[in-house]
Amino acid sequence: MTAHDHHHDHDHSDLSETELRVRALESILTEKGYVDPAALDLLIETYETKVGPRNGARVVARAWADPAFRARLIRDATPAIAELGYAGRQGEHIVALENTPRLHNMVVCTLCSCYPWPVLGLPPVWYKSAPYRSRAVIDPRGVLDEFGVAVPDHIELRVWDSTAEIRYMVLPERPVGTEDWSEEQLEALVTRDSMIGTGLALSPNK
After folding, report:
1. Cα dihedral 116, 118, 120, 125 sign
2. What is the pLDDT of residue 145?
3. Residue 100 backbone dihedrals phi, psi, to 5 degrees
4. Do 136 and 108 touch, CB atoms closer than 8 A?
5. Are 84 and 62 in contact (CB under 8 A)?
6. Active site annotation includes 203
7. What is the tens place of the pLDDT at every residue in 128-140?
8. Which residues does 78 contact at the CB level (< 8 Å), separation at least 6?
9. Which of 41, 82, 96, 173 pairs as cysteine with 77 (C-beta 3.0–4.6 A)?
10. How far is CA 145 from CA 8, 152, 204, in A?
């Protein structure tokens, strides 16, 4: 559904109070000529599908394929990510967290929804929800189980709380069986959720 559709859609029974406020504001700005619905649609599409999380997938694929880049990413993610041309607002201080066979990292922002937009795009709705923000800290294994990710007890699970100063992205484990894959092929296995830690990279067999 586009922003223009939102303007004409009167069935708001399934919307939250925040969503209703956003739609009301959008309608007013559109009517006054301050916002072009088509331009707004393009902006949203850009952040959702082009700015991210495809940018993040390219970062992950490069780290999987290039050990030197991976080392730079883990040491200081912001300049390493900038090497690929990704920088800007909400991406000034990014820390990369590497998942290993012994460690699984998961990201939350308990106070609001701080998120590395340049590499992951717009935060998903559930990332901003109060249940996720509170339960991710109290019961991270239970939350991951609901996402379909079972983390065995012998694997350490660390939850990282993003702030306005530091935003985190997860470097997921490289799937087995991709040793000879190109970076472009590897990108297709990287999901947004795997870079938050609420998912895993896709299997090459799927």
Report:
1. positive
2. 96
3. -135, 175
4. yes
5. yes
6. no
7. 999 999 999 999 9
8. 87, 91, 92, 93, 94
9. 96
10. 39, 10, 22
**Residue 114 annotated as catalytic:** yes
For the stretch 14-49, pLDDT in tens is 556 666 776 777 677 777 776 677 766 666 666 655
- Token match 């041309």: residue? 85
Q: Could you give the residue ranges of the DSSP H alpha helices within 66-124?
A: 67-75, 77-82, 117-120
Helix axes 54-65 and 67-75, enclosed angle (nearest 10):
120
Residue with tokens 């830690």, as numbered in its chain: 197
Share of the chain above pLDDT 90, in %: 59
Catalytic-labelled residue, pool 13, 16, 27, 109: 109
Catalytic member of 112, 134, 182, 203: 112
Tens digits of per-residue pLDDT, 79-107? 999 999 887 665 568 999 999 999 999 99
CB within 8 A of 61, min separation 6: which ones?
183, 184, 186, 187, 190
Percent of the chain with pLDDT over 70: 79
Q: Looking at residue 31, what is its pLDDT?
A: 76
Active site residue 113: yes
Which domains does the chain carry? 14-49 (no CATH), 56-195 (3.90.330.10)
Candidates 13, 16, 27, 114; catalytic one? 114
13, 16, 27, 113: which is the annotated catalytic residue?
113
**CA distance linking residue 74 with residue 94, whole number of Å:** 10
